[in-house]
Write a structure and sequence with these properties.
Blueprint lengths: L7 E6 L3 H16 L3 E2 L6 E8 L4 H19 L3 E8 H5 L12 E3 L20 E5 L1 E2 L10 H5 L3 E2 L2 H13 L4 E5 L16 H9 L6 E4 L9 H9 L6 E3 L7 H6 L6 H14 L4 E8 L6 H14 L3 E6 L17 H26 L3 E8 L2 E4 L10 E3 L3 H5 L5 E10 L2 E6 L1
Parallel strand pairs: 1-2, 1-3, 3-4, 4-5, 6-9, 9-10, 11-12, 12-13, 16-18
Antiparallel strand pairs: 7-8, 14-15, 14-17, 15-16, 17-18
Length: 418
């Protein structure tokens, strides 16, 4: 798409932060070519619908947004509809279902230099820094390798260039994302490691946070733990997606290599990294999860006491081994178990959050009157709302402040600026 005139763009971003980074790069490139963002997202010359297709609910959301965009096009609100991302990548022939779509574009297949985001959907204070594409694992429930391809690390120089630009613009939190950040550099020549990259980021000047999101349990190294404990910019936060805790279920998930690490992850990390915040995600209803095995999962999670926990019901995906496995609980049972896990997590959080009241923490202002502590990852862990005061009103996005917690509101907090 090229133009000499000021063609307006509307953007719809669906799915994960990694997907959003792709849209930031793609749309940012168009802005450099002369396009401009429309002040009205429902009216523009071109709308880009950037899609996810990871599970059934994501596909349904993508199809609904495409249909909505085509309806607005028919009403004259849009001249062109462009669909990008995982949905057209996974279903290239699905364009026939949406004849009004003008362009049907999958995911980027390589790192282009300088393919740096010219937009930031997250605002000034923080950003997602994508360091790799694709996945080296072959979990039997997951379609990501078929969509995104094999694991490919982004060049170190490109990452550092983007990080420097982000910090110069006022960004004060770099959230490292990839399908598996822990494998970073294994495919580069000469070979690099994630900690090589993290220490390079730590040498950059200024005050800022670096948070690594998603750490495959069996790939957490002593070097990574050392970085968490000693790097001046490291956030002591580990998101270790266990998916399950029962060995028989993990074997069916093709996560056999992670079984031992899964069972000891929470205790080992708390010992190794004092003050660490731990998050995990588990899946309910995968083939082989009997009533007994679900009770074991529930008991294990209560014992492990993760600070943050997410759960989702298994969605059988075409083209994956899991979709053909026998012994899968019904969708209703999977969703009921998901609800039970989240109720357990809420009960634990109620006790834990109450124990934090009265304590003071460093926090990053992300919007007027809104901050996040190091223990609160963006988009998934809630936020902290500042009670109105002269100090609170002075805090601008990108500022670090001290916040004293005074009230817990579900997964959020209220705090005084001190």
């Amino acid at each position: 798409m090229t133009t000499k005139e000021k063609t307006t763009l509307a953007l719809v971003s669906l799915g994960c932060a990694k997907n959003a980074v792709d849209l930031q790069v793609r749309a940012g490139g168009l802005l450099k070519k002369g396009y401009s963002l429309s002040p009205d997202p429902d009216r523009a010359d071109v709308v880009i619908v950037n899609t996810c297709a990871f599970i059934a609910s994501a596909r349904e959301e993508a199809e609904a947004e495409i249909t909505r965009a085509l309806r607005l096009k028919a009403s004259g609100n849009y001249s062109k509809v462009v669909v990008t991302g995982c949905y057209p990548q996974r279903y290239p022939k699905a364009k026939a279902k949406f004849p009004g779509v003008d362009s049907w574009i999958g995911v980027p297949d390589r790192w282009e230099e300088p393919a740096l985001p010219e937009l930031r959907f997250t605002g000034k204070a923080f950003a997602y820094l994508k360091i790799a594409e694709g996945c080296a694992h072959r979990c039997s429930y997951c379609a990501i390798p078929a969509i995104r391809g094999k694991f490919r690390s982004r060049p170190v120089a490109s990452i550092l260039s983007e990080a420097k630009a982000l910090l110069k613009s006022g960004c004060r939190e770099l959230n490292i994302v990839a399908q598996d950040p822990m494998l970073y550099g294994c495919d580069l020549k000469p070979r690099k490691s994630l900690t090589d990259l993290l220490w390079a980021l730590d040498k950059l000047p200024g005050r800022f946070w670096v948070r690594v999101l998603y750490s495959y349990p069996s790939e957490i190294t002593e070097e990574f733990i050392d970085w968490l404990n000693t790097a001046k910019h490291a956030v002591k936060y580990v998101d270790v997606p266990l998916q399950h805790t029962v060995p028989e279920v993990l074997e069916k998930m093709n996560r056999k290599s992670a079984i031992q690490a899964t069972l000891v992850a929470s205790e080992a990390l708390r010992i190794a990294v004092p003050g660490v915040t731990l998050r995990t995600t588990v899946m309910t209803g995968f083939p082989g999860e009997t009533d007994l095995r679900f009770r074991i999962l529930r008991s294990d999670l209560k014992r492990m006491q993760f600070d943050r926990l997410g759960a989702f019901a298994y969605s059988p995906e075409e083209g994956t081994k899991g979709a053909k496995m026998k012994g899968r609980p019904s969708r209703k049972v999977a969703e009921e178990r998901e609800k039970i896990v989240m109720e357990d997590a809420a009960a634990l959080w109620k006790i834990r959050s109450a124990s934090l009241l009265g304590r003071t923490f460093d926090a990053l202002c992300v919007a007027p009157g809104v901050v996040r502590m190091a223990s609160q990852a963006p988009d998934v862990d809630g936020v902290t709302y500042l009670l109105d005061s002269p100090k609170a009103r002075k805090a601008k996005p990108g500022d670090f402040i001290r916040a004293r917690l005074v009230n817990a509101c579900g997964f959020d907090f209220e705090a005084e600026a001190v």
